[in-house]
Design brief:
- InterPro entries: CalX-like_sf, Calx_beta.
- Keywords: Calcium, Repeat, Signal.
- This is Calx-beta domain-containing protein.
- It comes from Catellatospora coxensis.
- This protein has a five-stranded mixed β-sheet with strand order 3-9-8-5-6, with no helix packed on it.
- The chain starts with a helix and ends in a 5-residue tail after the last strand.
- It has one helix and nine strands; from the N terminus they run αβββββββββ.
- The longest helix is centred in the first third of the chain and has 20 residues.
- It is mainly beta.
- Strand 1 and strand 2 form a beta hairpin.
- The radius of gyration is 21 Å and the shape is elongated.
- The protein has a single domain, classed as CalX-beta domain (Immunoglobulin-like).
Length: 143
């Protein structure tokens, strides 16, 4: 019986270590952890062609002074450089208890087209996507 209990406790510890130590998949949507008392939630945006687009991040709580999150853009049905100016990697400083925003330039063309989308991905130091914001690009001539 003692041997079985020892085996059971060793197996439970091994399983726990596996679950804790394996890299966990990041959530494609959700909050960014930005401190012990801070969450930041990226918000989707609707933008017009040929304009700067503000993608907002709502901060709840108090981020530590100098807290930044890394972000990049990713093609969707809208693709860089024809539909928007790509951001391969950048940092966004978070403000205290409010809304922080980043700007992405949405390009325009002479073609009348339906709404297109691309994403702003918020990533960790290893490049894993923690959260996303979807940007809908509208053509003013189509609306």
């Amino acid at each position: 019986m003692t041997r079985f209990l020892r085996w059971l406790s060793v197996s439970a510890l091994a399983l726990l270590a596996t679950v804790v130590l394996l890299p966990q998949p990041a959530s494609a949507a959700g909050n960014l952890f930005c401190g012990t008392d801070c969450l930041a939630k990226p918000l989707d945006a609707i933008c017009w062609e040929k304009e700067w687009c503000a993608v907002k991040v709502q901060v709840q709580g108090t981020p530590a002074r100098g807290t930044v999150v890394n972000y990049r853009t990713a093609d969707g049905t809208a693709a860089a450089p024809g539909d928007f100016v790509a951001v391969p990697s950048a940092e966004l400083p978070l403000t205290t208890n409010g809304v922080t925003q980043l700007g992405v330039f949405v390009a325009g063309d002479a073609v009348r087209e339906r709404d297109e989308t691309f994403t702003v991905e918020f990533v960790d130091r290893d490049g894993r996507v923690l959260a996303t914001a979807t940007v809908v690009v509208q053509d003013p001539t189509a609306h």
